[in-house]
Amino acid sequence: MKTAIVILNWNTREYLEKFLPGVLRSAGCSDEGYPQGQTRVVVADSASTDGSMDLVKERFPGVERIPLKENYGFTGGYNRALRLLEGLSEKEEGPRIIMGGGIPEEYRHLNYDYYILLNSDIESDGDWISPLVEWMDSHPDAGACAPFLHSYFEKDSFEYAGAAGGLLDPMGFPLCRGRVLKTLEKDEGQYGEKNVLWGTGACLMVRASLFHALGGLDKRFFAHMEEIDLCWRMQLSEYRVTAIPGNGVYHLGGGTLPQDSPFKLRLNYRNNLLLLENNLPYTYALRLRKKYSLEKAAEKACEKASRKIFLRMVIDGCTAVAYLLKGKASFFKSVITAHGEFKKLRRGISKERVLSFIGKASEKTSVEGIVKKRIIPFGVLFPEKMLEKIHDI
Q1: C-alpha span between 95 and 213 (Å, rounded)
Q2: The whole model's pTM is what?
Q3: Could you list the residue range(s) of the whole structural domain that residue 16 is in?
Q4: Quick one: 277 and 212 in the same domain?
C-alpha cells in the first residue's frame, strides 16, 4: 500500500459520520472503507468516549482502527499511531534533524510511502490525493506537501489553518499565502505551486520514512504549531515543503478547540517559543557561515536566536497587558502560563549542537518561507497590504 490517510480522532463522532464518506470516495475506497487502490484510510482514536470507534466499526468496517490508551494530543497521538501502523514500537523517539538524507535503514522499508495527516472536520471532494502522490514520487527531495485549504463555509475562499501554504514573519509569527492574521482572501488563482516553510497539519502529506527518521512530531507541543516545527526540521534536513494548488479540501475549523479558547491561546504562545528555540539557531547559522568561520557563525547564531526569543517574550508580555486592559483576564493568564511552561519545557540553545549541524550541512541546505515583512505591527494595521506583499513572494 502506497498511502495511508490517518485521521486522529478525539470525540468527533459527528464529523466522522458526516465527512468520512467523502474521504473514502477521494481515496478510491468502497463505501465501507475497503481499499480498492493504493490508498488506505485509518482512524486513530485518542480514547474517545462518544462512540466514535463503534461508529467506524459498524458503518466503515474496511477502515483500519488504531485505538490509543489515552489522549496524547496531536503530537503524541500521531507519533504513536504512525509507529503502530508500521509495526514499530509505540515508544516515541524525540525530534531531531538528519543530514544529507540520512534515513536509517529501519525506516527504508515501511508499509507505506506516504502518510496524509487529516483532520476529522475536513470535507473531501474529488481526487485531490493523486496530485500529491505524483508530486512526491517525482521529487525525491520533497519531505512534505499540502493542498490548498479552502473554507467549508465559503468554498471559493482560503481557510485560516493553511490557505495556500504557510510562511513565517521575521519575529516568528505564522502567516499563510492567502491569510494574514484573521484576514482571508478568495482563491482567484493568484497563488501557484510554491515551496513554503510549512503545510497545515489539517491536511498534510509527509514522506513516511522521513517522518520517522526525524523522530516524528515534538511531543512537548501537544497540539498547535507542531507541523511548523516538523516542516522546518525537514528543510534543515535538506528536504523541501511545497504547497500544491487545487480544490477539494474544505476545512470546517475549530473542531476540537474553538478559536477563542484560552487553552488554545496558551498552546499557541508556548509552542511558538518552543518552535523558535528548536529551529532559529540552525537557520541563522546557515546564513552566517558564509561570512564567518563555522565556530564564530555558531556562536553568533545562538546569540541572535536568544535575543529574538527574548524580544518575542517582551512582545507577548505587551500583548498580555493589552488583553488585561480589554477585560480578557483569562487570555492574560494564558500568556503568562504559556511563558512559565516554556521555561520548564525548553531544552536550551547549544552552541555545540549548532556547530555540529553546520559542520555537516551541505551548501544546498537552506530554509524557505521566512518573509521580511513583519506581521506586527504592519499586518495588524494593514492586513490587505500585507497580503498584496505576499503575492510577490
Answers
A1: 9
A2: 0.96
A3: 3-251
A4: no
